[in-house]
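Bug #77: duplicate submission created two jobs. Keeping one. Sequence:
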Amino acid sequence: MNKSLTTSLEVLPQPGGVYFRGSLQGQVLMSCSRCLEPGHVDINHTIDVYESFESDLDDPPGYRPLKYEHGQWWFSLWQLTWEHFVLALPDKPLCSRDCKGICPSCGENINSGLCACLEETGDPRLAVFRNLKINL
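Kept job's structure:
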């Protein structure tokens, strides 16, 4: 089931800035980091940020969602939402928790069946450690 991405946001003016509170929920389609197949990723992110009226001169233009231009303050809801969307994305998205990935030798998707590659025996330089047993 594909759920659309929705944002709910409250804008609460404060004496020294603006407080933004809300959530970002839904699903996005991303490539799995193990098997490279497309898969739905659930997004459930809380937005809880305070932006001060005091601007830092070191910030590059367009960096902050709250800006002072032409004698008044304004904010970009799109920029704030996009920033939190990017923060909500997983580092390594998976199509499923038990994804087996692809074979490192032939590139076959192991989720759809085993490949015809021979089982790897390991690095021959480390063969001396294969039968090593440590008693605690």
